């Protein structure tokens, strides 16, 4: 590929987040005749990728066989938002030959008691947590989403939707700000357009939308895209039960540049370990630094700053309980994944030992 067409690729794909750094990383793959592409949607064994056509330089969506990059570990499987190397000349259809290392990734615990992780979106700049103002905000759930978002490496942003349905949006926003240290909380309405410009300005680049079913994620995606790209629930859900409209994760380009990944409503949001929890509860981490003992368990030790903050109401009981609950979950998953990784390593080790063993005389 000539230098000229490479820089065309950079400028064409930059709307999707392609950078000169990625381009440099990709150089050997381009040399091998592969084309950089962003995965816009994943189905079984195949995916839609967006790429700059090597001939015309124009953006094109191509269906590609993703089996060559499949993996028994769900975390390593291709995911919406991944950057990929595509072989356009493959027969009978283009194939995904390689996945590029992820910059950020939202990973939750797989559903149904499994200890596998599941990647919801990759290479995003902002995780937009949508929660409806129409119902009492579920603070515990928002805290959970915040921990998940911080852990992704991207910047969290809380968006309270359906502002047109309530009078006291600012009051609720203040409550949510209390549980979201360091995070911007916006109030928007897709119905009236309130707050959408601020939202656009707050979330440049690639954004992933997460939240409960019925939170208004698809409506927001449509509002940002300026066209009906996602199907929206027909009737106004009051109970939100079993009414999932969005079933796939899809990367949608935005007119002003950037892209948004709409995800299906999440009922189960198990954490998958990591430091995100500490960031989501940063004020507790700061408090703990003032405990007399540096290994304080915050139960009954003298000079415990957490206990003092609980006693005088600076740290609400609900917030502390929520932190402990998520921490227990994280520890459980950490113990499970460690055990599994150990088992995996033991197995690989056995294979190596077996193949290295000299043949029997
Ligand atoms: N009044 C009002 N209703 C809204 C607004 N945004 C969304 N809704 C309604 O809320 C319902 C749910 O919206 P969706 O966008 O489908 O919700 P979702 O989060 O994408 O749901 P899933 O796809 O199931 O995850 C629909 O009936 C929307 O019309 C808003 O700003 N104001
Ligand atoms: Zn303490």
From TrEMBL:
<feature type="domain" description="CP-type G">
    <location>
        <begin position="114"/>
        <end position="269"/>
    </location>
</feature>
<dbReference type="GO" id="GO:0019843">
    <property type="term" value="F:rRNA binding"/>
</dbReference>
<feature type="binding site">
    <location>
        <position position="304"/>
    </location>
    <ligand>
        <name>Zn(2+)</name>
    </ligand>
</feature>
<feature type="binding site">
    <location>
        <begin position="161"/>
        <end position="164"/>
    </location>
    <ligand>
        <name>GTP</name>
    </ligand>
</feature>
<keyword id="KW-0342">GTP-binding</keyword>
<keyword id="KW-0547">Nucleotide-binding</keyword>
<feature type="binding site">
    <location>
        <position position="291"/>
    </location>
    <ligand>
        <name>Zn(2+)</name>
    </ligand>
</feature>
<comment type="similarity">
    <text>Belongs to the TRAFAC class YlqF/YawG GTPase family. RsgA subfamily.</text>
</comment>
<dbReference type="GO" id="GO:0046872">
    <property type="term" value="F:metal ion binding"/>
</dbReference>
<dbReference type="InterPro" id="IPR027417">
    <property type="entry name" value="P-loop_NTPase"/>
</dbReference>
<dbReference type="GO" id="GO:0005737">
    <property type="term" value="C:cytoplasm"/>
</dbReference>
<keyword id="KW-0699">rRNA-binding</keyword>
<keyword id="KW-0690">Ribosome biogenesis</keyword>
<comment type="function">
    <text>One of several proteins that assist in the late maturation steps of the functional core of the 30S ribosomal subunit. Helps release RbfA from mature subunits. May play a role in the assembly of ribosomal proteins into the subunit. Circularly permuted GTPase that catalyzes slow GTP hydrolysis, GTPase activity is stimulated by the 30S ribosomal subunit.</text>
</comment>
<feature type="binding site">
    <location>
        <position position="298"/>
    </location>
    <ligand>
        <name>Zn(2+)</name>
    </ligand>
</feature>
<keyword id="KW-0479">Metal-binding</keyword>
<dbReference type="GO" id="GO:0042274">
    <property type="term" value="P:ribosomal small subunit biogenesis"/>
</dbReference>
<keyword id="KW-0378">Hydrolase</keyword>
<dbReference type="InterPro" id="IPR004881">
    <property type="entry name" value="Ribosome_biogen_GTPase_RsgA"/>
</dbReference>
<keyword id="KW-0963">Cytoplasm</keyword>
<dbReference type="InterPro" id="IPR010914">
    <property type="entry name" value="RsgA_GTPase_dom"/>
</dbReference>
<feature type="domain" description="EngC GTPase">
    <location>
        <begin position="122"/>
        <end position="267"/>
    </location>
</feature>
<feature type="binding site">
    <location>
        <begin position="211"/>
        <end position="219"/>
    </location>
    <ligand>
        <name>GTP</name>
    </ligand>
</feature>
<comment type="subunit">
    <text>Monomer. Associates with 30S ribosomal subunit, binds 16S rRNA.</text>
</comment>
<feature type="binding site">
    <location>
        <position position="296"/>
    </location>
    <ligand>
        <name>Zn(2+)</name>
    </ligand>
</feature>
<keyword id="KW-0694">RNA-binding</keyword>
<dbReference type="InterPro" id="IPR030378">
    <property type="entry name" value="G_CP_dom"/>
</dbReference>
<keyword id="KW-0862">Zinc</keyword>
<dbReference type="Pfam" id="PF03193">
    <property type="entry name" value="RsgA_GTPase"/>
</dbReference>
<protein>
    <recommendedName>
        <fullName>Small ribosomal subunit biogenesis GTPase RsgA</fullName>
        <ecNumber>3.6.1.-</ecNumber>
    </recommendedName>
</protein>
<dbReference type="GO" id="GO:0005525">
    <property type="term" value="F:GTP binding"/>
</dbReference>
<dbReference type="GO" id="GO:0003924">
    <property type="term" value="F:GTPase activity"/>
</dbReference>
């Amino acid at each position: 590929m000539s230098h000229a067409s490479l820089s065309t690729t950079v400028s064409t794909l930059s709307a999707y987040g392609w950078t000169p750094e990625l381009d440099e990383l990709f150089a050997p793959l381009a040399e091998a005749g592969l084309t950089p592409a962003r995965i816009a949607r994943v189905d079984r064994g195949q995916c839609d990728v967006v790429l700059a056509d090597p001939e015309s330089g124009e953006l094109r969506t191509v269906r590609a066989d993703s089996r060559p990059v499949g993996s028994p570990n769900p975390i390593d499987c291709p995911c919406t938002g991944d950057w990929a190397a595509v072989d356009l000349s493959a027969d009978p259809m283009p194939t995904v030959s390689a996945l590029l290392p992820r910059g950020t990734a939202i990973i939750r615990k797989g559903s149904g008691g499994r200890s596998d992780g599941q990647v919801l979106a990759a290479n995003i700049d902002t995780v937009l947590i949508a929660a409806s103002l129409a119902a009492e905000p579920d603070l515990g759930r928002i805290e959970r989403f915040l921990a998940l978002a911080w852990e992704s490496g991207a910047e969290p942003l809380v968006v309270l939707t359906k502002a047109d349905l309530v009078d006291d949006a600012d009051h609720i926003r203040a409550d949510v700000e209390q549980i979201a240290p360091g995070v911007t909380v916006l109030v928007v309405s897709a119905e009236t357009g309130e707050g959408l410009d601020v939202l656009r300005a707050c979330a440049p680049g690639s954004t992933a939308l997460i939240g409960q079913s019925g939170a208004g994620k698809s409506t927001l995606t449509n509002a940002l895209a300026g066209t009906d790209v996602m199907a929206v629930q027909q009737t106004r859900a009051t109970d939100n039960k079993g009414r999932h409209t969005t079933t796939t994760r899809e990367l949608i380009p935005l007119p002003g540049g950037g892209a948004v990944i709409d995800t299906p409503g999440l009922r189960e949001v198990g954490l998958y370990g990591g430091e995100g929890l500490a960031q989501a509860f940063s004020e507790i981490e700061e408090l703990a630094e003032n405990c007399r003992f540096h290994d304080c368990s915050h139960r009954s030790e003298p000079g415990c700053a957490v206990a003092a903050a609980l006693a005088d109401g600076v740290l609400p009981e609900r917030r502390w309980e929520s932190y402990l609950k998520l921490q227990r979950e994280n520890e459980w998953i950490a113990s499970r994944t460690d055990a599994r990784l150990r088992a995996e390593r033991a197995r690989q080790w056995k294979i190596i030992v077996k193949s290295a063993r000299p043949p029997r005389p």
